[in-house]
Each structure stands twice: as structure tokens, then as C-alpha cells.
């Protein structure tokens, strides 16, 4: 398991993930992280499917640290860094499992969202408790504003 991350998700690197230079194309890392995020969400909520998913991705930033290539074994760590009234930030760390080499780090902001009303909504208290139980180090900035 990745240090500081309670949740990790193994990635099976496929030949199609590579670019002409033989390393994982930068856009593929977004897919790796989205797969890890969905697995994190299912574990967090105890659900078996993605029905009634009430969040929308608002921001992603990635720092590429070292290239990954065919034969590398990758793992993605996911953790919640902070929660506000209607959004939360997730941090990601991708490592090569055999060497522990850092491949990429990222941060995403997700907004709790009502698709019918087309607007953000407060994170329900039950969901907030689930997130904080999974990642107790996460900073609840909405609590600081109260």
C-alpha cells in the first residue's frame, strides 16, 4: 500500500496505453485516476454500481514525475484531502509497485451535484461522515466555517 493512502487501486498497463515513444501517454493517466476514483467511491459508499452518482468533476491537475512503460506495474493511491460545503478534493499518487518509483501526482476537485436542478448541493452529513471515516486526515473546512 502507498504510504499515507488508505485506499489503493492496481492498474493493468495495456499496450494501447503507450504512445509512439513507448511510454504511457499523458492523457491515459486521467483514465487510471478515474478508474481508481470510482473504485474508491464504491468502497466508500458500499455500493456495487455507479447509479445515482451525485458528483461532478470540476478540476484536475497532474504533475508527471517519471515515465511509465510497458512491463511496469502501477498502483494508484486515492485519498480525500479536504471537504467544503459542497465539494471535496481528492489527491492521487501513482507509483511503480516493484521499485516504488513515483510516476505522477494529481489533485481533483469534485462537486456534489444535483443533475436535475443543474446546481451544486451541500454534501449530505452521512456522506461527509463516510468520507471522514475513510480518510480521517482530510480537512473539513466547512466545519471551520461554522
Structure description:
The protein has a single domain (7-145), classed as Thiol Ester Dehydrase, Chain A. The N and C termini lie far apart (35 Å). With 146 residues, the chain is of the alpha+beta class. A hairpin with a 3-residue loop joins strand 3 and strand 4. Strands 1, 2, 3, 4, 5, 6 and 7 form a 7-stranded mixed beta sheet that branches. It is built from 3 helices and 7 strands, in the order βαβββββαβα.
Lay out the secondary structure:
Layout: E1 7-11, H1 28-45, E2 55-64, E3 74-83, E4 87-96, E5 102-114, E6 119-120, H2 125-134, E7 139-140, H3 141-145
Parallel strand pairs: 3-7
Antiparallel strand pairs: 1-3, 2-5, 3-4, 4-5, 5-6
Structure described in brief:
The protein is of the alpha+beta class. The chain has helices at 28-45, 125-134, 141-145, and strands spanning 7-11, 55-64, 74-83, 87-96, 102-114, 119-120, 139-140.
**Separation, N- and C-terminal Cα atoms:** 35 Å
Uncertain residue ranges: none
**Domain tally:** 1
* SSE class: alpha+beta
CATH topology: Thiol Ester Dehydrase, Chain A
Largest beta-sheet characterization: 7 strands, mixed
Query: Percent of residues in beta strands?
Result: 35-45%
Number of helical elements:
3
CATH class: Alpha Beta
Name of the CATH homologous superfamily: Hotdog Thioesterase
State the order of secondary-structure elements, H for helix, E for strand: EHEEEEEHEH
The name of the CATH architecture is Roll
Helix proportion of residues, in percent?
A: 10-25%
Number of strands: 7
Radius of gyration: 16 Å
* Overall 3D shape: globular
Mean pLDDT: 93
Amino acid at each position: 500500500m502507498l504510504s499515507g493512502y488508505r485506499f489503493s487501486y492496481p492498474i493493468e498497463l495495456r499496450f494501447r496505453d503507450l504512445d509512439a515513444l513507448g511510454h504511457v501517454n499523458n492523457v491515459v493517466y486521467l483514465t487510471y485516476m478515474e478508474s481508481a476514483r470510482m473504485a474508491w467511491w464504491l468502497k466508500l459508499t458500499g455500493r456495487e454500481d455507479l447509479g445515482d452518482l451525485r458528483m461532478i468533476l470540476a478540476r484536475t491537475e497532474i504533475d508527471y514525475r517519471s515515465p511509465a512503460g510497458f512491463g511496469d506495474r502501477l498502483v494508484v493511491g486515492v485519498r480525500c484531502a479536504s471537504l467544503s460545503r459542497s465539494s471535496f478534493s481528492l489527491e492521487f499518487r501513482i507509483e511503480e509497485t516493484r521499485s516504488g518509483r513515483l510516476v505522477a501526482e494529481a489533485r481533483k476537485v469534485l462537486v456534489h451535484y444535483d443533475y436535475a436542478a443543474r446546481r451544486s448541493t451541500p454534501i449530505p452529513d452521512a456522506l461527509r461522515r463516510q468520507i471522514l471515516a475513510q480518510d480521517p486526515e482530510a480537512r473539513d473546512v466547512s466545519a471551520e466555517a461554522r
